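From the pipeline queue, job 12 of 40. The input is one protein chain; the requested action is below.

Action: predict structure.
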Amino acid sequence: MEALRQYLGLEKIVVIGSSYGGMVALSYAVRYQKNVSHLIVIATAPDSRFLQKAQAVLAEKGTEEQKAIAQRLWDGNFENEEQLREYFQVMGSMYALNYDPQLREKAWKRAIVSPDAINEAFGGFLRSYNILDRLHNITAPTLVIAGRHDWICAPELSEEIARAIPNADLRIFENSGHAIAGDEREVLLDAIAGFLVYKR
């Protein structure tokens, strides 16, 4: 991210990330805080505890098929894009309250996915990921967004992030799971736009 910022000749940038991207965004903001004008993190976590919490939720609420296919995620061993696609198809109802397979199919055609990136994360560094004790160093205006029914990045983790970052704003979307952009898209876009306009 920093190499790209420099290459494009940008000064301060708005950093926004969701889920795994939110972890990247938090890590960037801690390391390159002087280059961040605004930070927005959506449905994410500050440390590896999200893994254990998610596994417990899946054990309680998931189907047998979902529990079985999620093992590929926990182990970080997707072999190709088709396996990753199958994972999201089977797990769709866990990620979004308003899961629509047809809309998901359309979105998938536009998506750029990387089994290698997922495997590297879940099979490796996310198991020891922890940035919570450095979040107090973030100085940019920050918006933290969570879905009340998020199975993989529980909303209480977003509450921790918001408490740790000075003057952070917290928004919990009551009618969303992990896929807030699918469950409450317009409300999400309004929240982001309003934050960028009024937090200057």
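Job complete. The two ends are 22 Å apart (CA to CA).
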